[in-house]
């Protein structure tokens, strides 16, 4: 297929707002999709235009509930059966990624299962951002373009002009990301060591490093219940930090997250629009990832390198 052939961009329901921004930045319009819903909740997406022989981009994050993933799968299958030549699943947030290994007996590796299902449904390429674990790319047999939100966040952080800046990781698992940010910003690093009583419940947290008089920025790939972030912010302020703000790519924000953030010592939480916010908050600032995805999609369609987007 010639790279000059027009690409077609479609959206899943949950990512309509982001898809419109991406299409605008790309210089195109969203394709026409109609979703019919039965009374029992079953739904059926339908492409209302030909995609035969086309490169199709389907934009949709797969955050819970499971209908978001199901809609992506149905649209991939529809595009495959309509004879689209290239079908790219553009998933700003790749859901179920926390289940990337067997951390105890008799549990699934959901991230691997989802990867297999996406390929079976018809995806010939995946574009995603800030996977929970880098190795998830290896769960796919098709090409995966794993983008880093640091290309968005680093310029924003530099624009804040914070003195005595220190980058922090809210847990040991995020230390690699924290060190990458600190290298780019030439700042110090501190790490939070936490112990969990169970999922989403922290029993104890310690701080490795000095935050006295520092403007601290916590970095993480996602914020779910916000328990870790708000606990880390409290600990850091108690240890003498000047301010604490957080950068998290994916605003899952479930349960009591909004209340925790509002009542916390976090000065600000900066997120992308990979997942739409359920409600507004004076402490939450959204930085759009639309330009990043539009540029990568344009390069993919034109068979051009996207290596410049893999900075971390």
From TrEMBL:
Residue ranges constituting the Ribose-phosphate pyrophosphokinase N-terminal domain according to the UniProt record: 8-122
- Enzyme class, first EC level, given as a word: transferase
Note the CDD domains from the entry: PRTases_typeI
Q: Which Pfam families match?
A: Pribosyl_synth (PF14572), Pribosyltran_N (PF13793)
InterPro entries in the record = PRib_PP_synth_CS (IPR000842), Pribosyltran_N (IPR029099), PRTase-like (IPR029057), PRTase_dom (IPR000836), Rib-P_diPkinase (IPR005946)
Keywords in alphabetical order? ATP-binding, Kinase, Magnesium, Metal-binding, Nucleotide biosynthesis, Nucleotide-binding, Transferase
Could you tell me the EC number(s) of this protein? 2.7.6.1
Report what the protein is called.
ribose-phosphate diphosphokinase
Task: Please tell me the species this chain comes from.
Answer: Gramella jeungdoensis
